[in-house]
Amino acid sequence: MPPILLFVDTRAWYALLDRRDQNHAAATHFVQHVTAPFVTSTYILDETLTLVKRHMGHAAATRFGQRLWSEEVARLVRVSPEDEALAWNIFTRYADKGFSYTDCTSFALMERLHLDSAFAFDAHCEQYGRFIRLPSA
Question: CA angle at residue 126 from 33 to 17, to 5 degrees?
Answer without folding.
Answer: 45
